[in-house]
Amino acid sequence: MRLTRAGEYAIRCVLYLAMHHDRELIGRKEIAAAMDMPAQFLGKVAQQLAKAGIISIRQGSQGGYELAKRPQDIALLAVIEAIDGEIFLNDCIHRPHSCDRQTICSVHQIWDKARRQLRNTLGGVTLAELAAREKRACAGRSREQPHALQG
Amino acid sequence: MRLTRAGEYAIRCVLYLAMHHDRELIGRKEIAAAMDMPAQFLGKVAQQLAKAGIISIRQGSQGGYELAKRPQDIALLAVIEAIDGEIFLNDCIHRPHSCDRQTICSVHQIWDKARRQLRNTLGGVTLAELAAREKRACAGRSREQPHALQG
DNA sequence: TCTAATAGGATCATTTCAGTCCGATTAATC
DNA sequence: GATTAATCGGACTGAAATGATCCTATTAGA
Ligand code: SF4
Ligand code: SF4
Questions:
Q1: What is the model's pTM?
Q2: CATH classification for the domain delimited by B5-150, as one of 3.20.20.220, 1.10.10.10, 3.90.1570.10, 2.40.37.10
Q3: Cα(A108)–Cα(A103) distance, integer angstroms
Q4: How confident is the model over B19-75, as pLDDT tens digits?
Q5: Chain A contact for B151, CB < 8 A?
Q6: Which atom of ligand 1 is least distant from the CA of A93?
Q7: What is the number of the ligand 1 atom nearest to the C-alpha of B12?
Q8: Residue A50, CA distances (Å) to A38, A82, A128, B45 in order
């Protein structure tokens, strides 16, 4: 019942890209250093993101990553599911064959409802919103600095 | 992002107990057979449920399990969390130390919201409701049988 | 051509999961 | 009291997922 590390890194990566959407291409190492993750691991994650059509990658010297769509067109859910697969709180939702009793199971419906709710929440947030909020938070923090360095 | 097998078994176990709440004590093997799970494994799960105060266990000959509270006082969430631990979609929610950027992280808040929503949904359903719905579904199905054996 | 970058397959250590085994313990019954 | 039927609970195991890292190939700018 938790997000994998790879999923978390994927989010950090695209969030960084969204926050620097004005720049064309951003190198893997820069992203990894800024968002605090292993650069090699990010490479793996990025490949999956590219396959899912969320980012595009340029190889070779001066290569790097960039968003394949506009930040306001990428939902958080899409990023997560590109890495960790579609969200299914309980297996029986995904694989009907995994349990015989689902035709009468009252719990099954709860899982279905919970899953819809969760995917809805994550699907309703775009990278554009997240990046904007993040920038605001950072700005707020630097403005605060003279008053309260301890934060 | 999924329920463990142990959690699923725990739910099945307490659901069975709730559906037979009129009987005093029910043997482990009977529950395991009826709800289709390994009896040994159920033993492990039951111990945790007992520690969490959800069921009580009687040892010795003619021993077995029973609900420690009324079905309407046991939420689905409690059963799940007794086995799999408190639900945290993302580690940073649980362990603040696991990520430095959470003070400014816009994604953090989304996880927090999603988690609250999920726990709310699962916390709002009691065993009494589930058992009642399950019984109704079974009754409905047996009434249907003469008409459509294929289901 | 040289060099700086990613691609992508192989590999590996650790942890989690799912489950089993088995001796110890408990309590009803003979 | 002995037998028997049940759970307790710790040790153990195999399989899979997770979280990486390593290394060679490929790509493309200078
Ligand atoms: S018992 Fe119900 S909730 Fe559990 S796996 Fe089967 S259908 Fe799903
Ligand atoms: S970056 Fe944000 S969401 Fe991710 S672990 Fe850190 S605080 Fe949590």
A1: 0.91
A2: 1.10.10.10
A3: 9
A4: 999 998 999 999 999 999 999 999 999 999 999 999 999 999 999 999 999 999 999
A5: yes
A6: 8
A7: 1
A8: 18, 9, 19, 42
